[in-house]
Structure formats: structure tokens, C-alpha cells
Amino acid sequence: MIRYPMTQSDSRPIVAITMGDAAGVGPEVIAKALAHADLYARCRPLVIGDAGRIAEAVALCGLALCVARIPRPASGAYAGGVIDCLDLGLIPKGLAFGELSKVAGEAAYRYVEKATALAVAGEVDAICTAPLNKEALNLAGHHYPGHTEMLADLTRTPEVSLMLVARGLRVIHVTTHMGLLDAIARIEPGLVGRTIERAHAVATRAGIAHPRIAVCAINPHAGE
Asked: Structure pTM?
């Protein structure tokens, strides 16, 4: 299939969707999500993964979609009915679904690595991540508690925070992916202060002129 690049006037953000663990639910979830044509009115979704695996998921789900391999983000048509995929070609044909795979773990890391490089280079506007299998990642030699730490490492960011966003509410964590005793040992005034500053910066960039930030205590009674 011949694809033509979008015009420079297209203001829809390009969202890089990492395929996650190829032996897991990532390919299926992505295929079903991109079957909603109205999504393309809001953004340009680009799968960073394996075109063959996405096509297999499309077939297994019985979806009326085709998959287009593109060499770079600017080359996609980003129209309903077609899944644009920057194909890394890392998954062998016939890889079993639902089974732990070192190959899938390595590929999942490479998808995030590629998406991060594209974001840093300004070729995509955001990254959306499908689920990883941490055990598969470990088998492949990549030891990360989650996407947050992986993205920090790939961007050489010394300290990051995870923020959860819902309508009218944002929650930023002082600690993530650790046991309660370890979290208590790590929390200190400087870390709390820097987290508050990050929360304020993100909120103002999101258009909240005077954000109100509540700080939760470790002790739910907050009196001792």
C-alpha cells in the first residue's frame, strides 16, 4: 500500500502507541481501540510495534481494518479503517499468546525506547503505552518496576513523578512502585517539596492559573 504524508496544516497531535507485550493483551486492545473511527478526529494514532502482530490481532478480533507499515511518523495517513504502524519487526510469526516470552519482553522494551526517541526528537507529541509483562522484561535483561522508571532512564531524567489524572482531580505520587516501609524511609522534606513543585508546574501548563494542592499525610490521623 502506498501512503502519502499528511499536510503541514494538520493540527492533530501524533500519539505514539507502544504495543506492549506481544504475547499479552496489548495488540488486541490497540486494534479494538483504533477500530473507533471517531478517534481520528482528535489525534493521529501511530503504533510503535510489529505490523504483523497487530494484523494478527485484527484478524483474531474480526475487525474490518488493515495495517499499513510506515517508515516515519510524518508518513502516515491517519484515517479511520487503517492502522498506521512503525514496524520494528521484532516478533517472530507464530509467537504464542498468553505465554511468558523473553523475545516479547525485549521487543516491549524496544517499542518504548523507539517511542521515547521519537518524542524527544519532536516527531510525536505524546506516548500511550500498552501493558508490559515485567517478568518478560526481566528475562530480557531489562529490570524496571514500570514504565515510569523506564522513561526516566531513557530520557536521563534523575527524578520523576507519576501523576494520575481524572476529571477535576490530579494525584501526583511522592513515591511509586515500592513497599510501604521503603516509601516511609524514602520520604523527606526535599522530596515532598520537589514533588509539590512538579505538581504546580504541570497544573499551570495544563491551564490552571492558581492550582490548589493538598498534601496527604503518611499517618491518616495526621496528628502525631
From this structure: 0.84
